[in-house]
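If it is no trouble, might I ask you for a protein's amino acid sequence along with its C-alpha cells?
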Amino acid sequence: MANPLAVAGILGRDREMSLLEEASDAVRRGQVRTVLVGGEAGIGKTRLIREFVQATTGQVLWGGCLPMGGQGIPYLPLIDILRSLDPSDQRSLPKALAALLVHDTGDAVSTSRPHFFQAVADYLGERSEDNPLTVVFEDLHWADQSTLDLIDFLTGILRAGRVLFTGSYRTDDLADDHRLRPMLAEMTRRPFVELIDLEPLSPQDALVLVSGLLEGSDATAEQAMSMVQKANGNPFFIEELAAAG
C-alpha cells in the first residue's frame, strides 16, 4: 500500500494552506500573527501544520500537550520547546525559562506569573529579530490552564517581533465547559488571529486519497467508494480502512 503522507500531502487543503502562508508573509514583514487549527480527531490538523512548516522558511519551535488525568502538565508545550533547543541556546535562556528545563515550574513563576509570561514574550520576540519564528502548540484540548493563560497572553500582548503562533485542537473533545473555549471565544475578537475549522475532505478528494492508497491492490471501484462513504471524509479513517483491506 502507498505511503499515506506521500499520497495525501495537503490534499483538499488549499484554502487553509493559503491562510497559513498569508500569515507567514505578514510575519516576514514584521507582524505577529496567530492561526489555530481545529477539527475532529484524524481530520488532518497536525498534517496540515507539518506540511506548512516544512515548506516555510525561518525557525520552527514545536511543543505539544498530553492527556494527564484531565489537568495537563503545567507549561508542557513550552518545556517541550525549550528541551528541543541546542545546548548553547539553553545556556542563554533567562532564569525563569531555564528553570523549566528541570520541570521547576515553581521557581519559574516564583517572582510573579505576569513577569514570567513577559519573560517568555521577550525571549520569543528577541529570538525572531533576525529570523522569522513559527511557534507550534499541538493538542491544545489537553493543555492545562496555565499553558492556555500563557498562550492567551502571548497572542494578545506580543507585538514586536516576527512570530507566527499556530496550534491544533480537537473540536470533538471540547465539552461546553472545557477550559479552552473561553480563550477561543476571546481570540475570535482579536485582530491578526485566524481560527481554522478543518472540514472533512470532499467526496472527490476522499476518492483521490483512497485511489492513491489502494494503487497496486486488487480493490474494486465499489470497494473504494465504500471506504469513502464509511470514512465520511476523515483522512485518518480512510487510511485505516485501506490498511485493513
Q: What stands out?
A: The CA atoms of residues 177 and 183 lie 12 Å apart. The radius of gyration is 20 Å. Strands lie at 33-39, 59-64, 133-138, 163-170, 193-197.
